[in-house]
Amino acid sequence: MRHFARFMILLWGTTLFAGDRNDIALTIYNNDLALVREQRNLQVPSGVTDVLISDVPTQIDPTSVHFISKTAPSDVAILEQNYQYDLASSDRILKKYVDNKISVFTNQDGPFQGKLLSNTHDNLTLQMADGSIKIIRMDAVIDLDFPKLPSGLLTKPTLVWKLDNTSKTTNHQTELSYLTNGMNWHAEYVAVSRDDDKKLEISSWVSIDNQSGGDYPDAHLKLVAGDVHTVQPPPMARPRYDMAVAEAKRVQPQFEEKSFFEYHMYTLQNTTTLRDKQIKQIMLFPSVETPVVKKYTYEGAANSNDVRINLEFKNSKKTGTGIPLPKGKIRVYKEDTDNNGSLEFVGEDLIDHTPIDEMVRVFLGNAFDIQGERSQKETKRISDRTRQESWEVKLRNHKKSDVTVTVIEHLWGDWSMIQHSHPYHKKNAHTIEFEISVPTDGEVTVTYTAQVTW
Fold it and tell me: Which of 51, 243, 294, 389 allows an S-S link to 197, with CB 3.0 to 4.6 Å?
């Protein structure tokens, strides 16, 4: 069905439309939030005037709006603000035109002109000039004609201000700022494991997802990494949109990092344009190389027979990366040296915000050729509140090289070690670790007995 709505734009009388936006600045946070700052030139007559501010996002928080005239800060004030988000669409226009005259064109007869009594998904009901009733199937409608845009409907989300200008100056350079939902960013890391898993080549991109319902041309961009607390309002129904195809912008890294309050801020040194329904990618830092350690861990109480594979590196300036790393997904690849060095995917993990000189641990999966087995061999009651527990952990290595596996065991209560087959390290009050070397095609058994009091 072809279904068009034709209407004339309703003039707003003496109401003024705000000038074009310029000098747009965006600060985007990790929690579906952005701060927008922009400047507009306004012609504001002396006295009280209504001004319409369009080109604001559909997910704006109207309670967060801050406005100031930079020309005369103390002379221009907002007396009243309304956020108009009842946008024009064929359905909304039809609802607004109930009890008003419209023209309907069909693929059979017509046109029909009459008062719209009701409309549903299937039918339009008109009262004709002679009082007769005409029901028209919607699948027969090819065109609808409306004399004007109904009052209260806008083509864009709009802030309607009542401004009071107590000065004689009418040309004002103004600054507008507000918070909006629907904007997010996160970091993504691409890493290549080299030199027998002793070096990691890593680069990073930031992905910015704009679902705010607004465009931001030539914007100055800042990204804030950290857990900024916001008060969550009761849930409200918001329009849903289909995700557009992601657009990747491969540009040279131009982010400058600095500490800001208790967070970290990354400032893009050139401007960029963020369109609504767009995912944009910008390089955070180019490829750097850092030493890395591959570690195998076995935590039998939690992971059954699985031995986990981890890559660990220090986020240090001396070793390569050297900037606070925002949280994000890291994907790791490895060269297939038997196939012209092609890169193959070997696993991915999420890393948290990581300051400089802290360790980054990346879990990639479970080792195929290394197995663990844990069992309790004995428990002995010493008293009503004390007993001894004996445990056995077996590690089997089917790889073509020797490996070292960290065995992680958890003890509870007030415990003391009675017997142990291998040296251990007390990581904290309830965790011990054994560093066990397992030869190729070999098996090693770790045993210990602990006395626990509660």
Answer: 294
- Whole-model pTM: value is 0.73
138 within 8 A of 4, measured Cβ to Cβ: no
Write out the two tokens for 154. 């806008």
Bridge-based pairing of strands 21-28 and 216-225 is: parallel
User: For the segment 185-241, what is each residue's pLDDT rounded down to a tens digit?
Assistant: 999 999 999 988 999 999 999 999 999 999 999 999 999 998 787 776 554 443 333
| pLDDT given for residue 17 in this prediction | 56
pLDDT score at 298: 98
Backbone φ and ψ of 92, nearest 5°: -65, -40
User: Which amino acid belongs to residue 81?
Assistant: Q
Residues 424 and 434: their CA atoms lie apart, in Å, by 5
User: Which residues lie below 8 Å from residue 118, measured CB to CB, with a gap of 6+?
Assistant: 98, 124, 125
Separation between Cα atoms, residue 309 and residue 450, nearest integer Å: 28
Set out the domains of the chain in order of their start, with CATH numbers.
5-86+154-181 (no CATH), 98-145 (2.30.30.100), 290-367 (no CATH), 370-453 (2.60.40)
Give pLDDT, residue 389.
96
Contact 58, 210 (CB under 8 A): no
Regions of the chain where pLDDT drops below 50: 1-14, 235-251
3-state secondary structure the chain: CCCCEECCCCCCCCCEECCCEEEEEEEECCCCEEEEEEEEEEECCCEEEEEEECCCCCCEEEEEEEEEECCCCCCEEEEEEEEECCECCHHHHHHHCCCCEEEEEECCCCCEEEEEEEECCCEEEEECCCCCEEEEEHHHEEEEECCCCCCCCECCCEEEEEEEECCCCCEEEEEEEEEEECEEEEEEEEEEEECCCCEEEEEEEEEEEECCCCCEEEEEEEEEECCCCCCCCCCCCCCCCCCCCCEECCCCCCEEEEEECCEEEEEECCCEEECCCEEEEEEEEEEEEEECEEEEEECHHHHCCEEEEEEEEECCCCCCCCCCECCEEEEEEEEECCCCCEEEEEEEEEECCECCCCEEEEEEEEEEEEEEEEEEEEEEEEECCEEEEEEEEEEEECCCCCEEEEEEEECCCEEEEEEECCCCEEEECCEEEEEEEECCCEEEEEEEEEEEEC
Q: Are 344 and 333 in contact (CB under 8 A)?
A: yes
As a whole number of angstroms, the distance between CA 239 and CA 236 comes to 10
